[in-house]
């Protein structure tokens, strides 16, 4: 069971690391991401924060899964 949970954590981390950058590229290209002067809007900033938090959690999940699988943690 422990091995299955470790693999689940690793898969979760890999999936999120693969998906969120693509999402952010779409957000950055969205017309709502910049105002008429080219400055980032609240739309862009909110999504940037969401992506940063999601990628941080993905990295922690991946690291925890690998460390637990190696029986280091």
UniProtKB/TrEMBL annotation:
Pfam families: SCO4848 (PF26606). It comes from the Bacteria. The chain crosses the membrane at residues 40-70. InterPro entries: SCO4848-like (IPR058061). It comes from Conyzicola nivalis. Keywords: Membrane, Transmembrane, Transmembrane helix. This is Integral membrane protein.
């Amino acid at each position: 069971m422990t091995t299955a949970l470790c693999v689940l954590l690793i898969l979760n981390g890999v999936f999120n690391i693969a998906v969120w950058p693509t999402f952010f590229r779409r957000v950055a290209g969205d017309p709502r991401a910049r105002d008429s002067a080219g400055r980032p809007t609240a739309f862009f900033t909110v999504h940037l924060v969401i992506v940063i938090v999601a990628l941080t959690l993905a990295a922690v999940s991946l690291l925890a899964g690998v460390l637990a699988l190696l029986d280091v943690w």
